DNA sequence: ACATACCGACCGACCACTCGGTCGGTAGTG
DNA sequence: CACTACCGACCGAGTGGTCGGTCGGTATGT
């Protein structure tokens, strides 16, 4: 998406353009997270960015394009965990990575709210974020399924553990805890609760003496 | 809400009013479930009900009032499980009731969609359904907390089981499975997955020989 | 000259909601 | 029975406001 700087890097015009774009994405992330996509107006994003509506639409041809940029940015920030260049964690280590992800998300309510909002809004196929949400779930599902299967192969996880159910339930716990965390931010620890859930999984499906 | 019939009960005018009202609530439930509250227009509800917009607003003074009627109806249908007149189930039986609730919900995608949608939309305090969502979660939390505590007292559940975490995680699993079920209706069984989760809980926190 | 960043003015569509009325049925009175 | 008074159900035609998006222009830097 980012094209090479054709002028000197410090050019005021280009810099200003990039800055406006980035700021608009940040503002849109926050507003989409709290008011949803349909509940947020382009004018509101523009105002909070410090642009006129036309100025904002100069950078993003449509509201949907702005949403796409927001989702792209979210993927970029989270992608290191799942689709990063490093090898993905396997076996129980994958669940530890998810715990770490939960801990990190606890410091970024904007991104959590954005996801919870959009996941619910985009259930209907006509929503501009529908395919993104589908792919997001498919990605996590596939990643976690592979990790659990690998855990079986290397003797960490019991061979009779129901992979699909474990995977879906784990994802469900993450999503559900996020929802509750948004409703009572101070009184819920996503990290602790998820860690306890993983402990329960280990107690049930760990092969004794393997970790 | 219902005032005493000043005329004979079978008056055709009154009956027609009740019917229109009920149909409007049913239609609104469906539309709110698929398009959300903000994404649904009063005109759309009116058209699908078979009324003009003015006719619909004759029965419900505002869109928010229509939403309130929808939520009231949902509570009425689900309330038997949690706040019914019969004594609430305690100990592990409470989780069996939740399994039954999941099974019943599997046959009513409208109500599931309505809840998932509104729970996400109503995170922001200004949303007309915000307090309803808060109370809904508080109700389930309290109900399940009491059940788990009672299970400890009667020796079904281990005394060192972390009540709060178990309760929050259980609610999270329900919510998360609903979300996934909405995204892939045919490929997920909320009932089976939740049942497996309960099995994992039992394996970890059941007191041996008690059930 | 040329591209980029940006704005003011505007547009048609849609929004929730209001207003003034019609219509059919009911109750009371004679 | 007829007549009046009244009711709830419902509609057509608006209200002002907001929506996403377009267009023509200006200012600026290369």
Automatic annotation (TrEMBL), chains A, B:
Domain of life, per UniProt, equals: Bacteria
Name the keywords, alphabetized: DNA-binding, Repressor, Transcription, Transcription regulation
Pfam families on file:
TetR_C_6, TetR_N
InterPro entries this protein is in?
Answer: BetI_C, Homeodomain-like_sf, HTH_TetR, Tet_transcr_reg_TetR-rel_C_sf
Q: Which residues bind DNA?
A: 41-60
Q: Where is the HTH tetR-type domain?
A: 18-78
Q: What is this protein called?
A: TetR/AcrR family transcriptional regulator
Natural source organism:
Lentzea miocenica
């Amino acid at each position: 998406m980012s094209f090479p700087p054709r002028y000197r890097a410090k050019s005021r015009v280009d810099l200003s353009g990039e800055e406006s774009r980035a700021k608009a994405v940040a503002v849109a992330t926050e507003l989409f997270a709290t008011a949803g996509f349909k509940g947020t107006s382009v004018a509101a994003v523009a105002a909070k960015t410090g642009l006129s509506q036309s100025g904002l639409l100069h950078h993003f041809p449509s509201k949907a394009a702005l949403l796409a940029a927001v989702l792209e940015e979210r993927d970029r920030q989270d992608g290191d965990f799942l689709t990063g260049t490093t090898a993905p964690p396997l076996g129980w280590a994958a669940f530890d990575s998810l715990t770490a992800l939960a801990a990190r998300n606890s410091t970024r309510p904007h991104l959590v709210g954005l996801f919870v909002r959009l996941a619910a809004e985009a259930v209907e196929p006509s929503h501009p974020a529908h395919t993104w949400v589908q792919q997001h779930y498919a990605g996590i599902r596939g990643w976690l399924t592979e990790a659990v299967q690998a855990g079986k192969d290397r003797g960490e996880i019991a061979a009779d553990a129901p992979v699909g159910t474990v995977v879906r339930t784990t994802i469900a716990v993450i999503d559900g805890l996020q929802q509750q965390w948004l409703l009572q931010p101070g009184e819920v620890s996503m990290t602790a609760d998820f860690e306890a859930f993983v402990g329960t999984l280990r107690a049930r499906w760990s092969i004794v003496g393997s970790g």
